[in-house]
Amino acid sequence: MSEGEFTESQSKILERFVTNTSENVFVLRNLPEVIKGALFSRYSRSTLGLRALLLKEFILNEDMAFASIAAASDHQTDEQLTAIQKAQNFYDRILDGYGDDSIGELGSAHLAVENISMLAAKAIEDCRIGGSPLEKSTRYIYFDQKVAGEYLFYREPILMTSAYRDLFVDTCNFLFDTYGKLIPQLTARIEQGFPKDPAISKGAYTAALRAKVLDCLRGLLPASAMTNMGVLGNGRFFEGLIQKLNCHNLAEMQEIGKKSHQELSKVIPSFVRRSDPTHRHYQAFAQFLETMQAEIRSFAEKHAQDISQMFQPGVRLIEYDKEAVYKVAGALLFQNTQGSLQELQAYCRTLSEEEIALLLETGCSPRENRRHKSPRALELANFTFEILADFGAYRDLHRHRLLTQERQSLTCNYGYFTPQEIVGTEMEQAYVEAMERGKAAYDVIAAELPEESQYVVPMAYNVHWYFHVNLRGLQWLCELRSQPAGHPTYRYIAQEMARQVSLALPPFERFFKFVDFEGYELGRLGAEIRHEEKQKVDRNQIR
Predict the structure, then answer these.
(1) Is the pLDDT of residue 57 over 60?
(2) In a domain, 151, yes or no
(3) Helix (H) or strand (E) run with residue 86 in it
(4) Are 400 and 473 in contact (CB under 8 A)?
(5) Are residue 64 and residue 182 in the same domain, yes or no?
(6) Could you read off the pLDDT of 250-298 as tens digits, one per residue?
């Protein structure tokens, strides 16, 4: 059967499962994830087109018992379930028999994870490739609501059965109380300092004002504060995520891993089967992870305990390649020549500064805005940054996926961030008292339960982490995170990374042309005004 030779009845069947039956570009639809995955797996080893393959080996294959899927139904029939089971068996054979992990990327699912701690959200987002997470915003949502008379923070089971139960609960309640108490006070102060311009709509001003207030006060929220997440991911991503969660030392992560496997098994069972704790792949991974972590921990305790710490908040560029300019320049030329990359880079070392500048300029001058992606040649320049900043800022920057980053555990040992807006006001005393209460509780709990003690750490406390990122990824991060609507803390980090790279390698300064180095009081105001204007245009178009 070849493309274009479908009978009328075959085309009618196919129309339910593909967006067209004649063009060379089309989309699959109305098929279970495992069927789509199995179909694509066969696709790579077949001379048939995808639609012909779908007909021949799935829909019209009596052994697959698949033909009944063509009949629309709100409930899966026995025949449909049989066909899906056969596809799952096919997947299982491929994964177990051939170890072709890449086919785990051919099916996906949307996973909702609700009422989890900020700490757990970071554990989920640590799995970087193959998943797209979205998290409840501390900027647009008030976190001082109560349910059944209680603030929404995760009651860690070990803490709740320990001698520190009351200390933990009382400290978290105090942090939430302070957060809620300061919201109207800070709102009134900022509103007084930056009154609404009559030319600006009330809706845009109110939204920008709320974002400013909540940005300032989010540091009062403990890491146990509950959030909601939505995660779109492929099967390979979810398998790795569940394995890591199941192996985590904290009970919350283990529970999320268990429940995620349970629910995803209802939708993409073959894709997450190997993350079941009884599966040999999971058991081998768990053994590897436990052994590796124990050995590294032992080595660190023996050799690295006396290494000085980074106590001063800020950003440090600690590593870069001084030859990076020539590497990028040579890579820019590579695609347009027949020359060796090594020889092109060597040749660029012979060019004058003016010629190098002209070549690099060709890679950035046509860009009209930050969404115009630079050439991949920029990926040959790599930078490592060490950062000490508040956990709130880390949460925002952590979501960038195409880079390498690692953090240390949350502590209250590196000081905390105080918003400039409350410094010198009557609110500062309440804020400082909350921070000190958080640290006092952390110090007591951490002496016996260092990992569980992270749940009581307020988000204003600084966390230590590093970025290892190429120039192309850094350009995107710095230009995005320095925009006026961004939080002041991570705006500073983005600006500082761009500055330090530009100082270390001046020819690269041109690649940060859309980094915004200005400061803004009501940073969200411009974005809210544009949002309202767009809504008006959309409404007019609908009319």
Answers:
(1) yes
(2) yes
(3) helix 78-98
(4) yes
(5) no
(6) 999 999 999 999 999 988 888 898 999 999 989 999 999 999 999 999 9
